[in-house]
Amino acid sequence: MAYGQGEFLAKIGTDSIQSRQAYRGETLTRQLTHVLMSRPEHFSIAETVNPFSSHSAPVDLPLALMQWDQLCSVFQRVGLEISLVDPCPGLEDMCFASMQGFVGVDREERSFVVPSRMLHRRRRDEVEPFSRWYSRQGYRILELDLEGEEFLEGGGDLLWNPDWESIWAGFGHRSTRAAVDQFAALMEGMGFGVRKLELVDPHFFHLNLCLAPLAPDALLIYPGAFAPETLARIRLLAQTYEITREEALQFVCNGVSVNGYYITPRLTRRLEQILGSEGIEPIVVELSEFQKAGGSIASLKMLLP
């Protein structure tokens, strides 16, 4: 059964959370309990940087703040403790907290972050306040030697598989192949596999817009976002549940699979069937104001292992 925000928040309790924490316990190797976000106090669309923002109406900031608060409430109810990076005036996209770095835990259980180098200059100043927060929390900062036309956009293009043994890495629009190659060398040296995926549709400029890991062996994808050879490889590596372009443009792949739930901005009949086959329960959270800028649930958070 799917729940809207109000129904879900009234229904769920501690017992429900505990039952969800046992979800796929034989293969889900790391229970997630924390998420990092940044309140959208300065959120706006100041520049056209993607196909979504180029045709959007102005952001309704009070509505955006209300939608963000509702997302926070859902994250808390599924067992996530929220940490916040203070928003900075002039950094209107800072609320998309997945982009400023890639976060993980190494084989010795030490937390680390690989800071991003953003394609658009107006977003590069977002990286420093996030890196400061990670450093204060004791994360190792692993800097790549990115320069010139080499870009890497963190959790927008770099997604852990739910077994935390490998990483899906997109390139082609924001992150570049050279940067992903450098990132892959670092991760492989730490014992993690990196699966490089070429993106070809400009509407899906980040990997988290067209691919959502659901379980250690299952992905939700929009196939048209990928180069043909990449798509063939994905289908060999995992069970793929494929959605239509219309569904993908509604940010169906920009949801978050966590603790037995899939938090999504839209629930189509197809998505409900997919989640049911994996034993995952959907929760719908409306995020229309953020979608005007080209992002939704997955873009607004960084899950912390």
Report on this structure:
By secondary structure, the chain is an alpha/beta fold. It has a single domain, classed as L-arginine/glycine Amidinotransferase, Chain A (5-stranded Propeller). Helices cover 30% and strands 20% of the residues. It has eleven helices and 15 strands. It has helices at residues 5-11, 14-21, 61-77, 121-124, 127-136, 154-157, 177-189, 228-237, 245-248, 269-277, 288-291; strands spanning 34-37, 81-84, 101-105, 111-115, 140-141, 158-160, 166-171, 193-198, 211-215, 218-221, 239-242, 256-258, 261-264, 281-284, 302-304. The strands form five sheets. It has a three-stranded mixed β-sheet, with helices on one face. Strand 9 (211-215) and strand 10 (218-221) form a beta hairpin. The longest helix is centred in the first third of the chain and has 17 residues, at 61-77. It starts with a helix and ends with a strand. Mean pLDDT is 91; it is low at 5-29.
